[in-house]
Design brief:
This protein is an all-alpha fold. Helix content is about 80%, strand content about 0%. The C terminus is likely disordered.
Length: about 550
């Protein structure tokens, strides 16, 4: 291999590397700049299919990756937070959203790329104490790097285009559409980015052939490659679905079918598409306008395919259900339902899944309160044993959630507010686990009470019964406040905690009176005081959860599937 060819190859690969790095870095900046606004997009993901298309497009525009959105959707489908039909609509929208990068590339602002780098650098490095300015600066800086990479690729393609071997190869690809489709699919599979593949295609098409006048490949030759990039982009979803649920696999396959069938339909209309795109795009010399034409062809293809398939979502869902038959086994209590490590790169989505798992834990502890009361007051040994076994589940889930939340911290796109939210969620999950521990302690006292035949006075039973009612109400109110973000209810929980502390103090005085008048046996005093102390500690944990809600740690943005 001679030195000139090696130099061209290194330039091409280096420019591509810069482009992909710039695109990913820009995505990180945009995601951090969007911050909590991504929650709004997240809430839309579980609405009807039409809104799903819009939400998918919006999410992809921010994340700059249809693959990232598809992986996120697969995670939500696995967790049963959205239906297969909703997932398909979002993927359709993601295909449209990914056209944004091609449109940006078509502006051909490469001459100004260093201006973006300089402005973004100043904002990112010198104004970093202002979080929003820093995040926007990162996006602008990366935008400049992206175009610098394109400039390097363009410079490498000029001598390459003069090569007889390469130009003949491009002519073959342009003349045989199936070769174009295969080339686009393979390239996208390798670089794992359809946006990068299309940018290379735009640069290639904007390069003059041996005659120095016409495009090396032309619009008609570029369109099949464009279709191929869409097919290649589905490999990310297919890989993410490996080991996932049945519906996760169906979602990934539906993405592939959608893009493959769309290609099979429109490949026969390539000449007509080229004519239509030429008509709607700016006029001018071919080399000057073909990049915009390719971007418009990409947009038209994805919009047309979505319009064609949107009314057929039910049919597509039935097809993939036939292709991937079966149902998933119900998960045991000990298994996490919502946590998915594939979505960690999108902190807003990972936090969303973590909150669902914590909410599930809280509901389990709410059931423990019921069993604990039954165990102690009704001498139900089975209920007591259930509480002790369930506490093991809660402890395990706490460990899994804390590990998951800890894995979000190192992600580069985590904002300061999200970091605070993650820390708050760690405290919440610990408080939920403490409620389980206190229930287990009382269940242990219940077993002792049953084993040794301890009997309390009627007044002692009535007091403990009332204490349990206080605790149960506080647990249910704190969980509702956590799920809804109801600050009024959170404040009411804090008021209940103050009342609980006063009530515990009053019960202790009343118990001492019974001991002095010999209405109660001293040997039962330890169990009595320990039970009401543990119920009060349950109230303390509820108070901590209420404090978290008042600090804006809540699950109110969790959407429910329709």
């Amino acid at each position: 291999m001679n030195t000139e060819i090696l130099k061209i190859i290194l330039q091409l690969l280096g420019g591509l590397a810069l482009f992909i790095y710039g695109m990913n870095f820009m995505s990180d900046g945009l995601q951090k700049a969007a911050g909590d606004k991504m929650k709004s997009i997240l809430a839309l993901l579980t609405k009807n299919v039409f809104i799903g298309v819009l939400a998918g497009a919006a999410a992809t525009a921010v994340l700059q990756s249809s693959g990232a959105v598809t992986v996120m959707v697969i995670g939500f489908v696995s967790a049963k937070l959205m239906t297969l039909k909703q997932a398909i609509s979002i993927i359709m929208g993601a295909n449209i959203g990914t056209c944004i990068t091609a449109q940006l590339v078509a502006f051909q602002i490469g001459d100004y790329s260093w201006a973006f780098v300089i402005v973004g650098f100043i904002m990112y490095f010198f104004l970093s104490k202002y979080e929003k300015i820093r995040d926007f600066g990162q996006a602008i800086f990366a935008f400049g790097i992206l175009f610098s990479g394109l400039n390097i690729m363009a410079a490498a393609m000029e001598p390459l285009a003069q090569s007889e071997f390469f130009s003949n190869l491009m002519l073959k690809v342009a003349d045989v559409p199936i070769l174009g489709i295969i080339a686009g699919a393979i390239m996208t599979t390798i670089v794992q980015s359809s946006s990068a593949s299309i940018a290379v295609l735009q640069n290639l098409a904007s390069t003059a052939g041996p005659d120095g006048v016409t495009s090396l490949i032309g619009l008609t030759g570029a369109i099949p490659i464009l279709f191929g990039t869409n097919i290649g982009s589905t490999t990310t979803a297919l890989l993410a679905s490996i080991g996932g649920t049945v519906n996760a696999k169906r979602t990934a396959i539906s993405h592939t079918i959608f893009n493959v069938v769309g290609t099979l339909i429109f490949i026969w209309l390539t000449a007509y598409i080229a004519d239509f795109v030429t008509m709607i795009s700016p006029s001018g010399h071919q080399l000057d306008v073909i990049s915009r034409q390719i971007a418009n062809a990409h947009l038209c293809f994805n919009v047309a395919t979505t319009i064609l398939f949107l009314p057929l979502i039910n049919v597509l869902a039935k097809v993939v259900t036939k292709l991937v038959p079966g149902t998933d086994e119900e998960k045991t209590l000990m298994e996490t339902v919502y946590l998915d490590y594939n979505v960690l790169e999108q902190p807003f989505a990972a936090i969303h899944l973590a909150t669902k798992e914590i909410s599930r834990m809280a509901e389990i502890t709410s059931g423990m309160i019921v069993d604990t009361k039954k165990a102690f007051l009704a001498n139900d040994l089975e209920a007591a044993n259930n509480v002790i076994e369930t506490d093991k589940v809660i402890n395990h889930l706490r460990d899994m959630v804390v590990k998951y939340l800890s894995s979000i911290f190192p992600v580069e796109t985590v904002t300061e507010h999200q970091s605070v939210t993650i820390s708050g969620l760690m405290h919440v999950v610990s408080d939920v686990e403490h409620i389980g521990d206190d229930c287990k302690n009382i269940a242990g006292f219940a077993i002792d009470k049953i084993t040794y035949g301890y009997k309390f006075s009627d007044s002692a039973y009535a007091e403990i019964y009332q204490c349990f009612d206080y605790g149960s109400k506080m647990v249910s109110d704190s969980i509702e406040a956590l799920n809804t973000g109801n600050t009024l209810l959170a404040r009411h929980v804090k008021e209940q905690q103050e009342a609980m502390e006063d009530f515990e103090e009053r019960l202790r005085h009343m118990h001492m009176k019974r001991l002095n008048t010999k209405k109660c046996s001293p040997e039962f005093s330890v169990i009595y005081t320990d039970v009401i102390a543990n119920i009060r500690k349950i109230g303390d944990s509820c108070d901590n959860i209420a404090n978290a809600v008042l600090r804006d740690i809540n699950f109110k943005d969790i959407g429910e599937k329709e």
